[in-house]
Every structure is written in C-alpha cells, then in structure tokens.
Specification:
It is a single chain. This protein is α+β, with helices and mostly antiparallel strands. It has 3 domains: about 290 residues, Beta-galactosidase, Chain A, domain 5 (Distorted Sandwich), CATH 2.70.98; about 210 residues, TIM Barrel (Alpha-Beta Barrel); about 90 residues, Immunoglobulin-like. About 20% of the residues lie in helices and about 30% in strands. Strands 6, 7, 8, 9, 12, 13, 15, 16, 20 and 21 form a 10-stranded antiparallel beta sheet that branches. The protein has an 8-stranded parallel barrel with strand order 22-23-24-27-28-29-30-31, surrounded by 5 helices. A hairpin with a 5-residue loop joins β17 and β18. α4 runs parallel beside α5 and α10 runs parallel beside α11. The model has no long low-confidence stretch (mean pLDDT about 95).
Length: about 700
C-alpha cells in the first residue's frame, strides 16, 4: 500500500509487517524518514521534522539519509548518482516534477534545475512480502551527450543504532559463499565484482544489524541486487552514528554514456527489514524468490544426473546410453550430458563455438541418445557455453572480431578461451539462432548454461564509447537471449552456471530455474558453501550433486549416505560414474533417491530453519517445514566425532503448538513442545561423517 500526505509531502510504503517513509525536502531532494516496524501516515509525518542544524562548515549534508545521494552541493559521502554534462559540470540539483502511483508502484519524477536530465525513482511493494523493490531511470532530454559516472539503483538508510554489523559472503572458485559476519567499520566498505559476472568472490547482497541479532532473534536489514554483471555496493558508517548503503551495476572506472533522447534503467535493488533474526530474513528472501523471481517457482526440481565427473570430455553415444540406463535405475528424472558432445571438443583447448554434435561420437546426431533417454522415462539436458569461444574453432577463425578485445592488444586466454561480445546484436542473434534450433530439433528439456571465465580486454572496437557501453549491453543482451529462447520453448528449463557459483543473483534467477552453487562437490566443503548460499537464495534453486570418492578436488572420502544427505539440502543431483558403482552402492543410492523424493516438497518449498551451523565438531542441522506445519524434515550431519564432545539436542522450529509428530522411519511419536523447547537428539551413526534424515508427520488430533 502507498499513502501520501500532501501537507507534509510524506510518502508511506506499507508492507505486511514494515513501513518505509520518505519525503521531498525544501531543496527538492528525496530524503529518507523511516524503515522498520509499521507506521500510520500520521506517525510517519511526525518524523518529518526540521532538518538538523549545521554542525560546522566542514560537515555539509549528512552522509546518510537521502534516497539517492548525488554528487553536488555540500554532499561528501559516496554518491549514488554522478553526472558529467557536456559543458564539463558534474553537479546535479533536484527539481521535483511530479509523481505517479499505480498498482503498488510509486514513481517520483525529478529533473536537474539547469540541464534537461530527468531522474525517476521507482518503488514497488507487494501485499505478500516485506521486500521493497527499487530502481532508477535516468533520461537525457537534451541535445548533447551526458555521461553517468555512477548510476546506482538505490540508496538505503538505516536508523541510528548503537552499533552495526555487516554480513556478506566472500570466496573464490570452488570455495564460494563463505559467510562473514563482522563489525561494520567506520568509513566506506566496498563490495564489488569487476569481472563482468556476479563472481565467485563476492555476491551482491548485504545484511546489517545492530550486532545483537542471532539466527532466531533481532532486527535485520538486508538487500540484494538483481544484476548478473559487474556491480558495486558501498556500505557507509558515518561519524554521527548512522549507516546506509548504495549499490548498482558497474564498478569504478566505468561510465554510462547517454546520447540525446536515451535513457538508462538500473537493475532492481530489493531490500527488506525483518524481525526474527537472520533466519527470518532468509525465509523472507526465499519466499520472495519463489513467488516473484523464479519463472516457475511453484515447480519441484527433478532429480538429475550429470555426466561431467564420470566422463569428462570422453563423451559418446554408447557411453552415455550406458550411464543413462544406470541413472534411470537409481530413480533419476533428468539426464544431462555435460561438456564434450560437440565439434572437435576433446579437451578445453578446442571446439567452443562449434555447436554441432561431434560426428565421430554421435554418428547419427544427438537424436538417438535423446530418444533413448526419453524412453527410459527421463528428461534430456545438455551443457552449453554460448558466451565463449576457443581460438581453435571454426567460429573464431570466421569471426575473430566477435570477442572482447582492444585493437593492438594481446587477447588474454583463461581456460584456453575468449569471451564473445554479447553486447553486439549480431553475436546475440547468432547465439539465439543456434540455441533455439538445438533445443527444437532435438526435443531438449534442460540446458546447463555455463560461463567459465571472467572478462579481460573488455573492449568493443568500432564503438567510440564501446568499453563503457559494453557491460550493461552485454548483460541485457544475455537476458534477452534467454528470454527469447524460453519464449520459443516454454517447456525448457535452464540452470545458471559460471564455473560453479560465479553467476548467482536475483537477475539471472528471474529467467532461469536453478543455479549450480559450486564446482566443489565435496560434501564436507559443501556444508559451508550451502550455508552461505541459503542466506538469501532458496534451496529450490541450489543444485547439489552426489559424486564419487576420493573427491576430484579435495581427495576426501566420505560415506555415500553422508554425501546424499548433504546434497538433499537443495535440488538433488548425481554426478558419479555409475558404471563403477557396486550393486550395494546402486541399491543404497536408489533408496536414498526415493527418500529424497518423499521429502523434497519440504526442502524446495517449505520453511527453512538453520538449527545449527556447520562446525568441525558437533551436529549441523537444517529443518524444512510445510507451510501448514503438517510435516517437517530434519537433515543432520556431523563431520567428526571427538571422544567426550558434547551431544546437544537440536531444538526444532515452526511446529504446530500442542501437536504430536510421528517419525516415519521409527513410528516414534514426539510432542511438539518437547521438540521445540527441549529438543531432539538425532540418532547419528557412530564415527566420523555420520548423517541422518528425520521425517516427522503430524498426527491427527484425538
């Protein structure tokens, strides 16, 4: 709901549990008033008092408290909007020109007082979520070019608190999503990706609290940027005891040129305030993503098999059919052929860009394999990497100008490949054409869309401003290709992958169905990766595989049961070489797949509670509960079992008060009060790498 008080100029955005208030001040600048527990409009107006008195001539306007701080006047904090006009001036002065309200969306319209540059701040609220979406549109209404030195989506202001703590994730390839919670330092903290992709090294979300929040208690403010290219979020803690943050597409050193009549629309920067600790914040993000981000958030992800760790590049029709038969016996529902099926692809040194089935490996094309997989009752999926090319390929020999490069500079290779310039419309059209033919001609049900290197030499020769236009145009054309492909083939489902978790964000998830969280499939490492991933992104989107041991990356060996139980915390997949599994392993695997299918509706669509985080010793426990609390599942795992280590019970959450719950494996009946207030001791096998799945169903009332 959106309300307005004309006498004071206060706008109030109301969500189911929170309020967000702002006003345009006497200078014309949009200023923040409140973000937190619900307010009436009259209560919000009380907050619109006179501006604070000037402290000294050295301070200027407060560093936190504007809806989109600009570079201009007496502002000295990190600007969200920096403009360079044709005459060399760089300041922006707010002049309100109007507003629009329609269907939960507020648009506040402004222009610069001197130059014909128009800025519209957009806000969207929905009746079923506390998430507020914000974005900005900048339009050049003049006849001279304007340069946006910085154009963030939004700035968010927090109330004055006694202290501040920042939560975010860091990492690298195969070690993504490592959760960090640390006191927010004074000054500016910059989180960014300069790599052209979301990146493995950081992710465009933040959470802030007063340093007192726990998993179950405390107020948390959080935000996530819906963008799949380079990005920057700057968190600021000011000397006067305030904190806020601003974020958007691009990074330092890049600009956005605006030709006469051109406009730039920033990506969505969504945020919410929650009570109930970090767990409540995560659950709010999960519900929002399932309801309003994913194209098919109500669907249940199938159990898939992927051939990569079994075969590498050694892919042929005979071998894939043999694996598919084993996969079907396990209960797999989607069979995915990974890299190596096309062109002269025998290693990562050649073939990328030549997207036709290798005739020596598939003499009759992919058709016979696709039909065989479908006949086994499984969907058929295929790995593709449309944004890349090997120099050793027919595509590159025909179109060396299609890659990112600067004339006269060397073309740096990573993984023996170069990045195709998707900002070029001819490249984007080429990608769409071969992809839609591939999917349509072969009846393909699923694509694993990979992207295995960061940008370098990010130039666009032939365009005088190409290096600056490249980043936004690349991502928008990428989105457009995926959108066109899905429109061509409504039944197609897509997984986002970038060497694992290098492209996971709300932008790519709005047009794909799941994400490959990491190339690291070691179950022990995955416990930490999945813990960080789930802070914002729901289990429904998180691809998680069971692979062979010793693990290809770590050399670690853990039991098959433990590997399955860790992977069951997301969208379960299998990636081992099934032709080498023993009969006992195949039987155990089939039983575990069946066990997952009985509870996956809870994992993928239920309420998630992190009961205890991963540790070297002790039990890591995650619980998923049906919306009506009719059933719940607990996944518990323990890395090591030190002698004398305490065995603490796990206190469950979200159960129906006064109800009784039956363990479907043992028929033991538990009282909800005992489970929530006193806890459950998971019956874990003795020894290291032990795990359990406990499925509880509510008993009918007597």
């Amino acid at each position: 709901m959106i309300s307005f008080a004309p006498d004071t100029g206060v706008w109030l955005l109301t969500t189911p549990r929170t309020s967000y208030a702002l006003r345009v001040d006497a200078s014309g600048a949009p200023c923040h008033l409140a973000w937190g527990p619900r307010l009436t409009l009259a209560e919000a107006e009380e907050l619109a008092g006179p501006p604070p008195a000037e402290v000294s001539s050295f301070e200027g306007r407060p560093g936190v408290g504007e809806e989109l701080p600009v570079d201009g006047g007496t502002r000295y904090g990190p600007p969200s909007l920096q403009v360079r006009f044709a005459d060399g001036s760089r300041a922006f002065e707010w002049q309100p020109t109007g507003h629009r309200v329609h269907d939960g969306e507020l648009a506040l319209e402004f222009r610069d007082r001197r130059h014909p540059l128009h800025v519209t701040l957009h806000y969207r609220v929905r009746p079923d979520t506390d998430v507020i979406e914000r974005w900005t549109v900048v339009r050049n209404a003049g006849d001279e070019q304007v340069t946006l030195v910085r154009a963030d989506s939004a700035a968010w202001s927090l109330p004055a608190l006694g202290d501040y703590r920042l939560s975010h994730v860091t990492g690298q390839w195969s070690a993504e999503s490592r959760l960090r919670r640390e006191p927010l330092p004074h000054g500016e903290t910059v989180l960014t990706s300069r790599r052209g992709i979301t990146s493995h090294h950081a992710n465009p979300w933040v959470m802030l609290d007063a340093g007192e929040a726990t998993e179950d208690h405390g107020r948390v403010w959080s935000a996530a940027l819906a963008w799949s290219g380079s990005w920057r979020v700057t968190v600021q803690r000011t000397p006067d005891g305030r904190a806020g943050f601003t974020g958007g597409a691009g990074h330092d050193g890049t600009t956005v040129p605006l030709a006469p009549g051109e406009e730039f629309t920033t990506p969505r920067f969504a945020a919410l305030c929650t009570d109930g600790g970090f767990g409540a914040a995560s659950r709010a993000w999960h519900a929002y993503t399932l309801a309003h981000v994913l194209p098919h958030g109500d669907e249940t992800a199938p159990v898939l098999y992927n051939s990569w760790e079994a075969t590498g590049f050694d892919v042929d029709e005979v071998g894939q059919k043999a694996l598919a038969e084993r996969a079907a016996e396990l209960g797999v529902e989607l069979y995915v052929v990974d890299d190596g099926w096309f062109g002269k692809r025998r290693s990562d040194r050649a073939g990328l860009g030549d997207w036709t089935p290798a005739p020596d490996r598939f003499p009759d094309g992919l058709g016979p394999l696709v039909r065989a997989v479908h006949d086994l009752g499984m969907g058929f999926g295929l790995w593709v990497e449309p944004e890349m090319v090997n120099p050793d390929s027919d595509l590159y020999r025909d179109h060396p100008d299609w890659v990112l490069h600067f004339p006269g500079r060397r073309r740096s290779e990573l993984r023996n490949q170069l990045v195709l310039n998707f900002a070029r419309q001819d490249v984007a059209d080429w990608a769409h054409d071969w992809l839609t033919r591939l999917v349509g001609d072969h009846g393909i049900d699923f694509l694993k869309w990979d992207m295995n290197r960061a940008f370098s030499e990010a130039g666009w020769p032939g365009r005088p401003d190409g290096a600056d236009r490249l980043g936004p145009a690349y991502v928008r054309n990428l989105y457009a290709v995926v959108d066109r492909l899905r429109a061509d083939h409504p039944g197609l489902r897509i997984e986002s992958c970038s060497g694992g978790g290098g492209r996971v964000d709300l932008g790519i998830l709005s047009r794909t169905d799941q994400a490959w969280a990491s190339d690291n499939t070691d179950a022990a490492d995955r416990m930490w990766i999945q813990h960080g991933y789930g802070q914002v992104y729901p289990a429904r989107t998180m691809g998680a595989w069971v692979t062979d041991v010793p693990n290809q990356l770590t050399g670690r060996t853990v039991p098959l049961r433990f590997r399955f139980h860790v992977a069951m915390a997301g969208a379960l997949g299998i990636g081992g070489d099934l032709t080498r599994w023993t009969e006992d392993e195949l039987r155990e695997g089939a039983a575990l797949v069946a066990e997952y299918k009985r509870v996956r509706h809870l994992v993928q669509h239920g309420r998630m509670d992190r009961l205890s985080p991963p540790t070297e010793e002790g039990v890591c426990a995650v619980q998923y509960t049906a919306p009506d609390a009719a059933e719940t599942v607990l996944l518990a795992s323990r890395r090591t079992a030190g002698h004398g280590a305490p065995h603490r019970p796990v206190r469950l959450r979200g159960l129906a008060p006064g109800a009784r719950y039956r363990d479907t494996a043992t028929d033991t009946v538990h009282h909800a009060t005992v489970l929530t207030e006193y806890g459950l001791q998971p019956d874990l096998p003795r020894g290291d790498w032990s795990s359990a799945l406990i499925h509880l169903v509510r008993e009918p009332e007597a």
